[in-house]
Specification:
single chain, alpha/beta, Stationary-phase Survival Protein Sure Homolog, Chain: A, nine-stranded mixed sheet, 7 helices, 13 strands, globular, binds manganese (II) ion
């Protein structure tokens, strides 16, 4: 199996090194990742300038673009083969509920999915990254499962793993996305030159976090796996819209 690995934290992140190392047990790994931290980049493509690809001493390719750029250019031009899987991560921090809208980690996997490749986004719930090996182990298990039991259609799985020792993990649970409260307000700061700046505040706490959600699984020491789709159409509203348009 040939696996393309990317992330949004940058090619130097300890999370991507751990992920690449773990996945080598199941296949041939190529890393193409952003040259700097692009967390929160979502599904952005760079269209106003050419991108350059360079290779680090450890063999990782790094790109002066977004996570989506990395997967897009890897699959459509840089690599001489189409990867069997795209795996993005290990992100330092949760990508649960509404986080998925903004996440560059999820976006990199989503780009693989849109290009018809089974894809996985892997995040460690906790900024400290004490137990990256736990998330790496879950990612490896998932990749082995893909190899053993392909799902028959391209899939996009969003995986969140609690930052605990692997021995304490209570299994892997299929979940739906929960919801967060509104984000914290922007923080107004004064710049050294006397201008007013605005710094985007942190994400809100979990609001819909009941049984069955990603938040609930992680809270109960389980790895969460949510299948994602890309169709943003609001189908129940679509059914009502023709009537509304006649009013
Ligand atoms: Mn990130």
């Amino acid at each position: 199996m040939r696996i393309l690995v990317s992330n949004d934290d940058g090619y130097f992140s300890p999370g991507i090194a751990k992920l690449a190392e773990a996945l080598r047990a199941v296949g041939e790994v190529t890393v193409v990742a952003p040259e700097r931290d692009r967390s929160g980049a979502s599904n952005s493509l760079t269209l106003d300038r050419p991108l350059t690809v360079r290779q680090a001493a450890n063999g990782f390719y790094f790109v002066n673009g977004t996570p989506t750029d990395c997967v897009h250019l890897a699959v459509t031009g840089l690599l001489s083969f189409v990867p069997d899987m795209v795996v993005s991560g290990i992100n330092l921090g949760a990508n649960m509920g509404d986080d998925t809208i903004y996440s560059g980690t999820v976006a990199a996997a989503m780009e693989g999915f849109l290009l018809g490749i089974p894809s996985l986004a892997v995040s460690l719930v906790g900024k400290r990254g004490d137990h990256l090996e736990t998330a790496a182990q879950v990612a490896l298990e998932m990749a082995q499962r893909f190899a053993r039991a392909p799902m028959g259609e391209p899939v996009l799985l969003n995986v969140n793993v609690p930052d605990i020792p692997a021995a304490q993990l209570q299994g892997i649970e299929a979940t739906r996305l929960g919801r967060r409260h509104k984000a914290e307000p922007v923080v107004r700061i004064e710049t050294p030159r006397g201008d007013t700046g605005y710094w985007i505040g942190p994400a809100g706490g979990a609001a819909d976090a009941g049984p069955g959600t990603d938040f609930y699984a992680v809270e109960h020491a389980r790895a969460s796996v949510t299948p994602l789709q890309v169709d943003l159409t609001f189908h129940t509203q679509l059914a009502r819209l023709p009537d509304w348009l006649r009013q």
